[in-house]
Design brief:
8 strands
Length: about 200
Amino acid sequence: ENQIADEQLQYLGDLTQLKRLYLQYNQITDVSALTALEQLTELDLQKNQITDVSALAKLTQLTALALSENQITDVSVLAKLMQLTLLELNENQITDASALAELKQLTALGLGENRITDVSALAELTQLTALWLYNNQITEVSALAKLTQLTELWLHKNQVTDVSALTALKQLTHLGLDENQIADEQLQYLGDLTQL
């Protein structure tokens, strides 16, 4: 852990050839000083105090972006980062992730421990192999049936009652459903998931 704060980020702005930047476990709240780093392909800003990610929209070469454990509520500007294959947004304050449906190259998406209720827009992300949606307020998962490439799906600590749609996810090797509201009769739908 370091204690890099916002005023220190200005010194990184001149490093315009940077490809990877790791700034996790700091005290960063404002990422606007990073907009000049247009060559970045990987950026890790986990465990900071970031609320506004709009400045990151200019970093269109990013393929991996980690923003878990911040205080982010609005992720709509991230839809401009069309090259992303990995996006980690776990443990924030996100209620609406629908804008992320534009990120068609995503193979891994972390939205665990947020305030999400509707995951229907995520059905557009057909390249996903890993999806973390644990500890949200999700009740309906039928839209996820379109994500047939998924090998990992983490839905624990939600309010899911019907898992019948998950039978379409034949590639699943990891499925987390603990601490939901699943009754005995729903277990029959998991029998076809033979890769678990």
